[in-house]
C-alpha cells in the first residue's frame, strides 16, 4: 500500500503526533494478529457514508479505508552530505509515496527550537534544501552518461531534456513538486528512473496553539506559503488528549475550540487525497466497507482489490450511487426505481459507488 513519510525538524511535535496516529491505529483494532512495524501508523479515513450504509444493511461493523503513515526519524540538516543516518533518512523518504512535514508554529518557552526561533518558512526551507540537494546529486551523477547516450538515441534526448529542466528548477531552490513536475506529468514520467525525492507530493501539518486553530488570517498566510501543497492545522498535544476521550466528550472538546473534526481525521482524509486515491463502497450484513483504488481505476481493477479472482473472473458490476441508495432506502428499491446500473469491464469507478461484483469462479 502507499505510504506517507512524516518528517520535520527536532522538537516540532512529530513524536507527539505520531503517537496519537498509532493509538488511532485501525489495523490493531480490526486485525489483532496483523504485524505492524513500530514506525508505521495505519489510520482510518473517516467516512460518514459508512455509518449510513451500516444502518441500511444492518452491518455488524464498519471498515474505513486506511492511510499508512511512516515516522521518518533521523537527522535532517546535512542529510544530503550524508553518511549513515543521513543516507537512511533519505532512503526512507525515497520509499514513501508522499512527504508530510510537521512544522512547529506553537509558542512554548519550555520547548527549545533547534534554530532558536519559531519560523515555519525557515523550517520548510531547511527540509526542502536537503531534499533538493539530494536530487541535484542524483542528477549530476547521471548527467555525463545520459548526455553521451542522448547523442545516439532519440528517446534518451527527451530524458536528457527533462533532467535538464528539473536541474534548472532545483538550482532555483524549488522542489519539483512546487514547479508542477510530479509523477503523472510528461516530464515526471521521463524522470521516473531517477527516483527523485521532490517529485513526490508534499503536505504540511502546522502544529499550532489553540488560538491559531481559528485564526483564518494566520492559516491563509501558511497556506500561501506551502501552495500547491495542502496545509493542515492541529495541536499535537490536544490530538493526543482527544484520542483518550470517548466520542461525545471528544466532540464537545472539539466544538469548544471551533473545530468539527479531530486534526488526525483531517490529516488522514487530506493524506489519502494527496496520494491520488479514491474509494468505492460495499455493504452487507457482515460489514460496510470502503475499498481503496487509484483514481481512474476500472471496475475489474476495483474488483481485484477485494480478491484477484474477482478481477480474473469479472463479469459485471452492479452499481448504485450512494446518494441514490440513501434516497431509495435499499438495493431492491433502487433496482425498482431504475437506479441500479450494470457496468462492464471498461467502466471507470466513481467516488461514492456502492458496488456488488458479478464474477465467475
Ligand atoms: P519531535 O522531536 O518533533 O518528535 O517533537 P516531540 O513530539 O517530542 O515534542 C517536543 C516537545 O514539544 C515535547 O515536550 C512535547 O510535549 C512538546 N509539544 C508537542 N506538541 C506540542 C504542542 O502542540 N504545544 C506545545 N506547547 N508543546 C508541544
TrEMBL record:
Superkingdom, taxonomy of origin: Bacteria
Gene Ontology cellular-component terms listed: cytoplasm
Keywords, ordered alphabetically: ATP-binding, Magnesium, Metal-binding, Nucleotide-binding
Domain TGS: 276-359
Domain OBG-type G positions: 2-254
GO MF term (any one): GTP binding
Residues that coordinate or bind ATP: 11-16
Cofactor(s) of this protein: Mg(2+)
Chain's role: ATPase that binds to both the 70S ribosome and the 50S ribosomal subunit in a nucleotide-independent manner.
Family according to the record: Belongs to the TRAFAC class OBG-HflX-like GTPase superfamily. OBG GTPase family. YchF/OLA1 subfamily.
Name of protein: Ribosome-binding ATPase YchF
Amino acid at each position: 500500500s502507499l505510504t506517507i513519510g512524516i518528517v520535520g525538524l527536532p522538537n516540532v511535535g512529530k513524536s507527539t503526533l505520531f503517537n496519537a496516529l498509532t493509538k488511532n491505529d485501525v489495523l490493531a483494532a480490526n486485525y489483532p494478529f496483523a504485524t505492524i512495524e513500530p514506525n508505521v501508523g495505519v489510520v482510518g479515513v473517516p467516512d460518514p457514508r459508512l455509518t449510513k450504509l451500516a444502518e441500511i444493511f444492518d452491518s455488524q461493523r464498519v471498515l474505513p479505508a486506511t492511510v499508512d503513515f511512516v515516522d521518518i526519524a533521523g537527522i535532517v540538516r546535512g542529510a544530503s552530505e550524508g553518511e549513515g543516518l543521513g543516507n537512511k533518512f533519505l532512503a526512507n523518504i525515497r520509499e514513501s509515496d508522499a512527504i508530510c512535514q510537521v512544522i512547529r508554529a506553537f509558542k512554548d518557552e519550555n520547548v527549545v527550537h533547534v534554530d532558536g526561533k519559531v519560523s515555519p518558512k525557515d523550517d520548510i526551507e531547511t527540509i526542502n534544501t536537503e531534499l533538493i540537494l539530494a536530487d541535484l546529486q542524483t542528477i549530476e551523477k547521471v548527467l555525463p552518461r545520459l548526455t553521451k547516450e542522448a547523442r545516439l538515441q532519440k528517446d534518451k534526448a527527451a530524458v536528457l531534456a527533462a533532467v535538464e529542466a528539473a536541474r534548472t528548477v532545483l538550482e532555483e531552490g524549488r522542489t519539483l513538486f512546487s514547479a508542477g513536475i510530479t509523477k503523472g506529468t510528461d516530464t515526471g514520467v521521463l524522470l521516473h528512473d531517477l527516483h527523485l525525492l521532490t517529485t513526490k507530493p508534499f503536505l504540511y501539518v502546522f502544529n499550532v496553539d489553540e488560538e491559531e486553530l481559528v485564526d483564518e488570517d494566520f492559516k491563509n498566510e501558511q497556506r500561501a506559503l506551502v501552495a500547491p501543497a495542502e496545509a493542515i492545522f492541529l495541536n499535537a498535544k490536544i490530538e493526543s488528549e482527544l484520542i483518550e476521550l470517548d466520542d461525545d466528550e471528544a466532540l464537545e472538546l472539539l466544538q469548544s475550540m471551533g473545530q468539527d473534526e479531530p486534526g488526525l481525521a483531517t490529516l488522514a482524509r487530506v493524506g489519502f487525497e494527496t496520494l491520488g486515491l479514491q474509494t468505492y463502497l460495499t455493504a452487507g450484513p457482515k460489514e460496510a466497507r470502503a475499498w481503496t483504488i487509484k483514481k481512474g481505476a476500472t471496475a475489474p481493477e476495483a474488483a481485484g482489490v477485494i480478491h484477484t479472482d474477482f478481477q480474473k473472473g469479472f463479469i459485471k458490476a452492479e452499481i448504485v450511487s450512494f446518494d441514490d441508495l440513501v434516497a431509495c432506502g435499499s438495493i431492491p428499491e433502487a433496482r425498482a426505481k431504475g437506479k441500479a446500473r450494470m457496468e462492464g469491464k471498461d467502466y471507470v469507478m466513481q467516488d461514492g459507488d456502492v458496488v456488488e461484483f458479478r464474477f465467475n469462479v
